[in-house]
Design a protein that fits this description.
7 strands, alpha+beta, Alpha-D-Glucose-1,6-Bisphosphate, Chain A, domain 4
Length: 144
Amino acid sequence: MAENTRLVHATPEQVWEVLSDGWLYPVWVVGASRMREVDDDWPAVGSKLHHSVGLWPLLIDDNTEVTATVPGHSVTLRARAWPVGEAEVSIRLLPVGAETEVRIIEDAVSGPGVLAPRPVRGVTLKWRNTETLRRLALIAEGRR
């Protein structure tokens, strides 16, 4: 499991606007390569992003589903990339004045990814989500 936090120089509403635009997912999520489809009700519970992960030409088509959401505050996702496996990703937005503390907690929940010892997968997820949060911040801050 890995937990990352970043202070974003944008309001929670501005950050949520980025999270709510499923077509932006491969712009800020490290590993996501392209979007194929976004359900009309994204990010409602049960809605999905249909994406590809990896590097061309070795792409895996799969999806990410919303399992819980509090609009403007949090979203929990089940990210799939079979045959690699599935991960649970929780994103929380905490207001800090006119800025937002964004917290991502992620861990593998099924598939071969769970075979790696927690400390090992925690290091790789921590590195990945540091860059993911940097990208999310650049988009949200650039829209101000």
